[in-house]
Design goal:
- Helix content is 64%, strand content 4%.
- The protein has 15 helices and three strands.
- It has helices at 20-49, 54-75, 78-83, 85-98, 126-145, 155-170, 174-190, 199-214, 217-227, 238-249, 260-264, 275-308, 312-336, 354-371, 377-380, and strands at 105-108, 111-117, 121-123.
- The longest helix has 34 residues, at 275-308.
- It is globular.
Length: 388
């Protein structure tokens, strides 16, 4: 029978607290995102739902759910999280499988990326895949770190990454699949795994990716439009050019909230994939600089938390979550500015999409959890349960 002690082993003031600066940055990004979504989605809401607050209301509901996830992953004991990790991984894979079942999965333009949620619209399981992939790899890398040299094998991690990416590719979500593979490779790199083992796989992957692009005309059009931006201004590049015009029209200090192309609906889907153009038009170069500064501070705090975290599993996971949010943001900005081909990857905290904001906040909750960990006690005392 366990002996319980009602007194702390050391004064409460000496326990590390959650990173308050990181929390402030999360609140700032979320708040700016909600305001931007409101004025970018007013025209869309009135045109299709007769409600200018339609997208904002849905995002607030999703944000509340995300807050619950954030609290859960922010307070759960790391050992307990690792014990339920198999259920998280299998659950996310199961949700992806549901997208292929008629009546449950939702098909749009030949892609099955969503499942129906009664009274709420749809849910995109690939966001859950991003979350579980990071935890899965971090768990395996930590176990390899504590194993004997002759017992170490990176094969389970490679297979896991292929499964996570493969099931998203099967949903016809090429850009998200590529992003998941790239994020996974980043975790391999920071964990000290030699990436030369992926050279043979790259030889097989390149023809596969090329075939995957060629099989869908809209993917080919995106590449063609990107390579010839001046040749298809009124067709393939209409959306991208609209976003670039909105960014340029913002000038130094912006045109103000809800004006210009944003108000006129001159940028298709500006409330989702191209919402950064709406922010840039409203706030100008000054607003862009403010956002970049906040995102940079966010990345800095993530790296600092990861480096000072005493738990290797939590450190790798928090780094993976943070860099996933930052890199996804940079990709979205690159697309809006015409630097990268159109991808469909949302801007974290900003883009309309309940699944994205829910798991973005869940990731932030885990990072806050990791910021409190001082000693590597969870790892040393971990009994080996969880994914192997």
């Amino acid at each position: 029978m366990h002996n319980f002690n009602f007194f702390a082993e050391k004064p409460s003031s000496t326990y590390r607290k959650s990173d308050f600066h990181f929390l402030i940055l999360v609140v700032l990004l979320w708040g700016i995102g909600i305001v931007t979504l409101y004025f970018c989605s007013m025209t869309y809401g009135m045109r299709f739902h007769q409600n200018p607050f339609h997208s904002t209301q849905r995002q607030l509901i999703s944000s509340f759910i995300g807050l619950l996830f954030m609290i859960f992953f922010g307070v759960i004991d790391i050992k307990k999280l690792r014990k339920i990790l198999p259920f998280i991984v299998l659950g996310s894979l199961f949700l992806c499988v549901l997208t292929f079942i008629p009546g449950i999965g939702v098909e749009r333009n030949g892609a099955r990326r969503w499942i129906k949620i009664p009274y709420f619209s749809t849910f995109q399981p690939s966001e859950a895949i991003k979350f579980s992939m990071v935890l899965y790899l971090a768990n395996l890398f930590d176990k390899q770190r504590n194993s004997l040299e002759e017992e170490r094998s990176d094969f389970p991690a490679v297979i896991g990454l292929v499964v996570f990416g493969g099931i998203v590719f099967a949903q016809q979500d090429f850009s998200t699949g590529i992003f998941i593979i790239g994020s996974g490779l980043l975790l391999f790199f920071v964990s000290g795994v030699k990436l030369k083992m992926f050279i043979p796989l790259a030889g097989l992957a390149i023809p596969f990716f090329a075939l995957f692009i060629l099989l869908e005309p809209y993917r080919v059009n995106r590449i063609v439009g990107f390579l010839a931006p001046d040749s298809y201004e009124q067709t393939l590049n209409w959306q991208v050019n609209g976003a670039k015009r909105a960014i340029i029209d913002g000038g130094l200090f912006g045109q103000g909230i809800g004006t210009g192309l944003t108000k006129l609906g001159g940028v298709p889907e500006i409330q989702s994939d191209y919402i950064f153009a709406g922010w840039a038009e409203a706030m100008g170069l000054f607003g862009v600089a403010v956002y970049i500064a906040i995102l940079s501070a966010f990345a800095y705090r993530v790296v600092k938390i990861s480096l000072h975290c005493g738990n290797y599993f939590a450190a790798i996971s928090s780094f993976g979550f943070g860099m996933m949010i930052v890199l996804q943001s940079l990709v979205n900005i690159g697309v809006a500015g015409g630097v990268l081909p159109s991808t469909g990857i949302p801007l974290p905290f900003f883009s309309s999409g309940g699944s994205s904001i829910i798991f973005t906040l869940a990731m932030c909750g885990f990072i806050l959890n990791a910021s409190r960990i001082e000693e590597e006690n969870e790892i040393e005392n971990f009994d080996g349960e969880g994914i192997r």
